[in-house]
Amino acid sequence: MAEILPADKALEPALALLRAGEVVAIPTETVYGLAGDATNGDAVARIYEAKGRPRFNPLIAHVSDMEMAGRIGRFDPLSQKLAETFWPGPLTLVVPLKPDAGIHPLVTAGLDTIALRMPRGFGAKLIAALGAPLAAPSANTSGRISSTSAEAVAGDLGPRIRLVVDDGATSVGLESTILKVEDGKVRLLRPGGITAAEIEAAIGMKPERGAKGIEAPGMMLSHYAPAAGMRLAVEEVCAGEALLAFGPQRVKGADRAAATLNLSPSGNLREAATNLFSFMRELDRGGTATIAVEPIPVEGLGEAINDRLARAAAPRGTESGE
């Protein structure tokens, strides 16, 4: 069961866990977040695992200051103004991801943008002390109500994590508002702790509604697809196909593959989740027409892996909301 520590005594224990690639439930002004080092793939995979039955949607990366944010994302003047107005606070901005940002691909779920937020309080101190951004979705089992107190987190995720930092009830109690600036306009991707009226007052324009596929947490779309076609759960590899392998045993014809990358030679689903997007990209860069994917178990993180693979293989333009 997770240990609960008050915020004034939790900084060093939380830092030690984060540096070891573990996850920690932390208070923010919105809801409690399940935090892990956004530059560490194993830590990000643990976030998905601890929340249970996850789907690979992009995660918000939390930063301590504008200097850290600027190292990760590119800010146009309007995004900069929004950040200066509402940060620190319950606003998330989706901005282009810098290629040398160091963010693990699991955080962005294969997108070329990054969702950034600057929290107040303990979270800000923890990020500054770590010197790295924290990926932190809500600290609750997938599909359940978001937690606004340490006790709620412990009652839900307690058996699956080691530490919950208690700073009392959250002040906002709703997840952050998510905005994206595009072509000089602001789109509201998710309503939250900052209202549309407050946004309009700050920038002199009404935010537009509507998303174009998966652009932020909580959205689903047939996306993440390479240029190559994909065949899933194959029993045999055809000549010239690239092979995305899993585990110690190869399917028939694996020796004919144009290129092979193994998500986890030992069959570790956490390792496979960590490697999925980067390996798909690398195989796609080889220019083969098709990527064949070996069967991957559905249990645990395997459900999320198979979900993402199915979306990558789906006909382009297929959408569903969540």
From TrEMBL:
Keyword vocabulary terms for this entry: ATP-binding, Cytoplasm, Nucleotide-binding, Nucleotidyltransferase, Transferase, tRNA processing
YrdC-like domain span: 8-194
A molecular function (GO) term: L-threonylcarbamoyladenylate synthase
EC number: 2.7.7.87
KW Repeat (keyword) present: no
Subcellular location: Cytoplasm
Keyword Nucleotide-binding annotated: yes
Highest taxon in the source lineage: Bacteria
Catalytic activity: L-threonine + hydrogencarbonate + ATP = L-threonylcarbamoyladenylate + diphosphate + H2O
Function: Required for the formation of a threonylcarbamoyl group on adenosine at position 37 (t(6)A37) in tRNAs that read codons beginning with adenine.
Assigned protein family: Belongs to the SUA5 family.
Protein name, per record: Threonylcarbamoyl-AMP synthase
Taxonomic source organism: Aquamicrobium terrae
Lineage of origin: Bacteria, Pseudomonadati, Pseudomonadota, Alphaproteobacteria, Hyphomicrobiales
